[in-house]
Amino acid sequence: MGYSAFSLLKNALTGHRHWRPAWRDAAPQAQYDVVIVGGGGHGLATAYYLARVYGVRRVAVVEKGWIGSGYAGRNTTIIRSNYLLPGNIPFYELSMQLWEGLEQELNYNAMVSQRGVLNLYHSDAQRDAYARRGNAMRLHGVDAELLDRAAVKRMLPYLDFDNARFPIQGGLLQRRGGTARHDAVVWGYARAADRLGVDIIQNCEVTGIRSEQGRVVGIETTRGFIGAAKVGLAVAGNSSRLAAMAGLRLPIESHVLQAFVSEGVKPLIDTVVTFGAGHFYISQSDKGGLVFGGDIDGYNSYAQRGNLPVIEDVCEGGMALMPMIGRLRLLRHWGGIMDMSMDGSPIIDRAPVDGLYLNAGWCYGGFKATPGSGLSFAHLLATDTPHETATAFRLDRFGRGAVIDEKGQGAHPNLH
Amino acid sequence: MSGQPFRLVSGGLVDRRQSLRFRFDGQDYEGFAGDTLASALLANGVRLVGRSFKYHRPRGILTAGPEEPNALVELRSGARREPNTKATTVELYDGLEAASQNRWPSLAVDLLSLNGLLSPLFVAGFYYKTFMWPAKAWEALYEPLIRRAAGLGRASGEADPDAYEKSHAFCDVLVIGGGRSGLAAALAAAREGKRVIVADEDTRLGGRALTRPGDADALAAMLVELAANPRVTLMPRTSVFGVYDGGVYGALEKVSDHLPEPAPFTPRQRLWKVIAHESVLAAGALERPIPFADNDRPGVMLAGAVATYLHRFGVVPGRRAVVYTSTDEGWQLAADLYAAGVTIEAIVDPRGAVAEAVQAGVVASGARRLIGARVVRALGGRALRGARVVDAHGQTVTLRCDLLAVSGGWTPNLALTHHHGGKPRWDEVLQSFLPGAPPPGMRVVGRAAGEGLAPLVDLPAPPAKGKSFIDFQHDVTAADIRLAEREGYRSVEHVKRYTTLGMATDQGRTANLNGLMVLAEARGAAIPDVGLTMARPPYAPVAIGALAGPHRGRDFRPTRLPAAHGWAVRQGAVFVEAGQWLRAQYFPRAGETDWLTTVSREVTTVRSSVGLCDVSTLGKIDVQGADAAAFLERVYINGWASLAVGRARYGVMLREDGFVMDDGTTARLAADHFILTTTTANAARVFQHLEYCHQVLWPTLDVQLASVTDQWAQFAVAGPRSRETLARLVDAPFDLANEAFPYMGAAELTIGGGLPARLFRISFSGELAYELAVPARYGEAVAAAIMAAGADFGICPYGTEALGVMRIEKGHAAGAELSGQTTATDLGLGRMLSKTKDFIGRRMAERPALTDPARPRLVGLRPLDPAARLRAGAHLVALADPADAAHDAGYVTSVAFSPSLGQWIGLGLLAGGPDRLGERVRAVDPVRGGPELLLEVCAPCFVDPEGVRLRV
């Protein structure tokens, strides 16, 4: 049943008894054309585009827990395409354009809200770096505006302009950036993929990758062997572990990134703001909670929890930026595990094993990339060639030195 | 209003001699010391205290503690306004002001309660199904409406005026919860000589004993012994909110929240980081409501809370009560209420049978005893009027009451046991979840471990009709959960996220178990198979200000001041942040109206005479040991073994991945002693890198590293008259003559009659120049002495701006070029890459993409129009090419107005740059909307390219 105001009204009259499940709880079949491992946003989007755009018939997504239980449901929901480097900009802009039509395409309201993303700068050097970035965006046809201090003050008068340790000088604004409801993105893709015949198999953990004569032929799972002509991994946070099952060692470390939400309050912060003199970013959800975050904890971890030093650091950044939030209360904090790659950019590529494909290394930029990643990975899986916007995300780029290092931090995954 | 009509004349732990005035929604009331805002409101007969999140239903007080979902208020006013404050946790103080929230225009008449009429539409997740057309309307129309309707209270919108502190505490045993079990555990540990901390979120220790007549006295002896033990710290008003790795517990102490405002020099709250060898969780149990239609009417209250108001606060929350209970305790409550003068209309117990002995206690009250019965609906609107009950025979009975005390039994308060991911275990006997795998070092005792709890009984399923609230605050009903399940959101985590069950500010304490019950029933599964959502920290919401502590405003980060800062202040410097440092940016003089005039004057003075610049912020690392030179050989791209004592050399370091990390000048003071300098920005990073190299890569090298950045004040004395200036300071017999102390010389000497100093003949400006280093405590004096020595040459102090102008004129790479994305070759330093030794980054720098000649490389840029102003961050495009991504050839890294050339100049990274000298390119700057500029590509050095001036 399609979703609309009309269908909602109609169902209201019958006590909502006739809604169907948003997706079937599928049991695994013996053989698929493509099996995607990982029922997060990227995996489900990949399955959707495989079926929708590339007409691949038999597609399954296997998920060890419930869909969206990894970083897809643990991020701070920001979407943007304000990247610096040529290898990144077209890809994230593709993603942004897909966000812009996503809800109508999926028939699911993911609350994509283009409320703007403002990155503040606090020094001349930062201003020049943002000018460089903004110009790179503009040359790629992406919207960007460089605001001065007065313009920022008009927009966000509640920031600390008078007593700041690092006075705000201005900001780089991408108006098309914003937020989306992360769980709804997962559910929307799941529902749309399911309607195209994709099997979504939850509570099915991969325990091995089976190869025959050097070619991957399927996966071993807690629900038995599932045969597949092609296997795609979209398990950011656990990419190293899964790839190891195929004998691969990836240039990726797993790290924990925390996210935070406050108690709900009436509308207070209308845009996404990032602090340039510390690591802090914030927006307000439609429900009213302030959603914010900062740096990764900095050590390798598979535990979905973080620790106090970063919690304190994040809140210090928040208070330095907007001291009005001091009396608002942190309601929950949690950790998500992410792939931190050696240059801070992702990998969408064929693995060095036939039949195995990688979608990994999203660092903490994975959520905003969801639609673009899904489309690009589907393209790769279906055609064996990289999508035109994702040609830089090759696995061998580290060997070639063709790194895409936005922050200029080098092979220090904890600094990206 | 006066008199507190619902206050008993005696009993409870309030101090009836201390009357406190307070105001709620503009109305004045009185309560007593020892009250909470909730108990004081109830004492005054105030039932309606809030409105719900979605339907704006009238709500009263449900609980007596931090699990409260309904009674949220805006506490205090002005900049101190605290939205969403649970009235049940607010200690009453004289002059307290609070207001109801999320209602318009008033609590009694809330027009947004019209949402309730639309509730057939506003079911769980309805917003995912609509508001999609047209696409633009989401931001323009739907979302603003939703946002305005959502949220709870209003933030003040003003900077928090209060202060917060952070503290550490260490103990052998941290006891979380100061009730009977916690105190017993504390006492046992204390008697073994352990250091013990007892933390409890309540105002006073005692836990549930405070709510039971007589029990508090029984704890008094324990408290006296604990208080007398110097190894025991009792911390009431302190909530342990999180269990972190390594035995670290986060706790929040409410230091001043019971006062109108904090006393001077006292924080509002204090964040404790408690490092404990072990912990004892004695967090007690939570009472489970029993869902039925309209179970949110003000006057419906948990039985345990009624008991608390009665026994602890001496308040009866109603005149005529129905007790709906599945526990024997509920029957006792009925007897107690009766004894306090409350009419007991009925006791409704869903259990099939209740022991005669239990029933005996209420016989005197004359209450109806409806055993095997269930409440199906509460009656009333803004206040409870009655309850509709279906008795054991299926007959509907309507009862009249203004208080409906409800208890579905007690379950352990497990939240903190989840913080390391440990799943609870299901106990068949208690029909309840018990702690499964608590965090390492945590022991769970008392009711939190299930001790002394009666087994839970199956509760009647919420009726299919009407709104049976499961999560009160978020208006999640049983029907919402059933709908979510029907739509495929079957995992308990999906249900939570789809319906928002358990995500409110009470974190679902009263909701989670009943939500699970409804879900299990809908799925036809057993509760343990459905599983529980994991509680996330913090256990109780924590003010963001408390987590930030004092690190806000100017104290967000430390401010590092060079030793001669005071001197610079006296010179009238304008300062700029350089990382944590505050550096002199320029030194305006009277009559100079803009910074460019000042900076140009400073540059001109240096280039024509002499100037003084404080360069103390550059990182200085002392490298000593027999293998010091060998160590430098491995970390720098160029050679060091051959550097003579008394000489300095410019060095470049790569990261392991072959890109440039940092540069600087390093001098050899002795065969086994170097002084290495870094850029200001990378000082810490380079030191960290060198320590890593030494400790991890080459631990056998005999080398020691020490950061001495703060120990030495260092001044650049630059310009053609710098030698003459310094000659007046250095002690004989040191000879400054060019032959005796040539370019790149380094020496230890004394100045001013015996002050030890170091002198380096190095130059960033391109002029004859020196850097003089003295022990930091002499920094100010030496700066003044240099100024005096150069006075008749017209010496001027210069700041970071002039420093930057001169380095751009000389084409030296600095911050914008050392972006972490450039190679040595990109920066024109490729010839320094030694081919005869190994060094960090060498092999990775040979990767094809790093040696591609088409890479953007450093060039000078000069606008053809000498009046044009070039801007850093502009991108470079070849003359014939369109300005688009495909033809983006690089960008401008740094710009300056060069007084020497009389025009703006720049440095840039241009594809194949050094092969394009003389070519004309365009600078495009769409993000600033400036005009395109025509530039000539030139060598990066604009002034004295042969370096003659350095060597005179």
List the helices and strands and how they pair.
The complex is a heterodimer of chains A (416) and B (952).
Chain A: H1 5-13, E1 31-37, H2 41-52, E2 59-62, E3 78-79, H3 89-106, E4 117-121, H4 124-139, E5 145-148, H5 149-155, E6 170-174, E7 178-179, H6 182-195, E8 199-201, E9 206-212, E10 215-221, E11 224-233, H7 239-245, E12 252-264, E13 272-275, E14 280-284, E15 289-300, H8 308-321, E16 329-341, E17 347-350, E18 356-360, H9 370-383, H10 397-400
Parallel strand pairs in A: 1-2, 1-11, 2-8, 4-13, 11-18
Antiparallel strand pairs in A: 3-7, 4-6, 5-6, 9-10, 10-11, 12-15, 12-16, 13-14, 14-15, 17-18
Chain B: E1 15-24, E2 27-33, H1 37-43, E3 50-51, E4 58-59, E5 72-75, E6 82-86, E7 96-100, H2 137-149, E8 164-176, H3 180-191, E9 196-199, H4 215-228, E10 232-235, E11 238-244, E12 248-254, E13 269-281, E14 285-287, E15 300-302, H5 303-311, E16 320-325, H6 328-339, E17 343-349, H7 356-360, E18 368-371, E19 374-380, E20 384-390, E21 396-400, E22 403-407, E23 410-412, E24 425-427, E25 432-434, E26 442-444, E27 469-471, E28 476-477, H8 478-486, H9 492-499, H10 512-523, H11 527-530, E29 542-543, H12 544-548, H13 565-570, E30 574-578, E31 581-586, H14 595-608, E32 611-614, E33 619-624, H15 628-635, E34 647-654, E35 660-670, E36 673-678, H16 683-697, E37 704-707, E38 712-718, H17 722-727, E39 746-751, E40 755-760, E41 769-775, H18 779-789, E42 796-797, H19 800-810, H20 842-845, H21 848-851, E43 856-863, E44 875-878, E45 890-898, E46 903-911, E47 920-924, E48 933-938
Parallel strand pairs in B: 1-7, 8-9, 8-13, 9-10, 13-26, 15-22, 16-17, 16-22, 17-18, 32-42
Antiparallel strand pairs in B: 1-2, 3-4, 5-6, 5-7, 11-12, 12-13, 14-23, 19-20, 20-21, 24-25, 27-28, 30-31, 32-38, 33-36, 33-37, 34-35, 35-36, 38-41, 39-40, 40-41, 43-46, 43-48, 44-45, 44-47, 45-46, 47-48
